[in-house]
Amino acid sequence: MRRISLVFLLLLSLSVAACDSNSGSDEEVVVTDLEVGTGIAIKAGQTLVVEYVGRFTDGTIFDSTDEKGEPFIFTFGVRQVIQGWDSGLRDMRVGGTRKLEIPSHLAFGKNGQCFSSGECAVPGNTDVVYEVKLLDVFDEVITQDVTPGDGLVAELGDVLVVSYIGQLSNRDGNVFDASTVQAGNFLFTLGTGSVIPGWDIGLQGMKVGGKRELTIPPIYGYGAYGSPGVIPPYAVLFFTVELLEVVKRPTG
Fold first, then answer.
1. Which of 36, 60, 87, 124 could be a cystine partner for 112, CB 3.0 to 4.6 Å?
2. Domain of 219: which CATH number?
3. Could you report the per-residue pLDDT of 150-207, keeping only the tens digit for each?
4. CA dist., res. 219 & res. 155, Å (int)
5. 195 pairs with which residues across the strands?
6. What is the pLDDT of residue 173?
7. Catalytic positions, please?
8. Does 41 share its domain with 80?
9. Are residues 118 and 164 in the same domain?
């Protein structure tokens, strides 16, 4: 999979928007496959990478990944997005493009999509239309070396000393954990399950002195449950890790 950045679109009103307006309506999502994909069929709990355009019924664009400059990542079927997406994307295959005509009660409801500034991207009780292209299923750790390093190579069984920053949503904020001067650097044994699987996978082959960025899907992070009060369920995680020291495992 190509390297991708995480954009969490504020399609957030999800359950609120879906249930606080016209919830008795019998209108459903109208699904049209513009292009049928040839890849795997998606299922609930998988994390997807998509491009999309969101329009009002008159054709006016109110949101798109082109505007944001990067794909959108979310976990399908767990109410991370509006109900019209979770129902309308069922059985879609990677590589496909699908048009979703979504009635307001399955989109942003009577409250619309409004922000603290008072601006509303989508007014209340508004039907919307999305074209969604399914690029990939995000199911592997993505690594990028910011600084390659020139020291010992980290291998399974080695003790690593690192400093790190862990973030949600993007690399510009939402820090949920970090090594600190007060607590000191973090020490662990690579490949023993003492850290999340994304670290055991993503830090192999790193060299002392190097700095590496890890983008970790939920299946290699904190999964369906998250970490209460810290990391939400199905969260994609970003880590920046600097490898300070490697203590090699005994060889004899």
1. 124
2. 3.10.50.40
3. 999 999 999 999 999 999 865 566 899 999 877 789 999 999 999 999 999 999 999 9
4. 22
5. none
6. 64
7. 164, 176-177, 196, 222, 239
8. yes
9. no
- Band the pLDDT of 25: cuts 50, 70, 90: low
Report how many domains make up the chain.
Answer: 2
What contacts 133, CB < 8 A, 6 or more positions away?
A: 35, 50, 51, 52, 96, 97
User: Which residues are CB-contacts of 45 (< 8 A; sequence separation ≥ 6)?
Assistant: 75, 76, 77, 78, 224, 234
Answer whether residue 1 is part of any domain: no
Taking residue 189's Cβ as centre, other Cβ atoms within 10 Å add up to: 16
The residue written with tokens 């496909």 in the block is 96
* Cα–Cα distance for residue pair 108/85, rounded to 1 Å: 11
Give residue 103's domain range.
14-137
Residues 29 and 122 in one domain: yes
What string of H, E and C letters represents the secondary structure of the chain? CCCCCCCCCCCCCHHHHHHCCCCCCCCCCEEEEEECCCCCECCCCCEEEEEEEEEECCCCEEEEHHHHCCCEEEECCCCCCCHHHHHHCCCCECCCEEEEEECHHHCCCCCCEECCCCCEEECCCCCEEEEEEEEEECCCCEEEEEECCCCCECCCCCEEEEEEEEEECCCCCCEEEECECCCECEEEECCCCCCCHHHHHHCCCCECCCEEEEEECHHHCCCCCCECCCECCCCCEEEEEEEEEEECCCCC
How much of the chain, in percent, has pLDDT values that exceed 70? Answer: 87
pTM: 0.80
Q: What is the pLDDT of residue 183?
A: 76
Q: Are residues 146 and 185 both part of a single domain?
A: yes
Cβ distance 10 to 103 under 8 Å? no
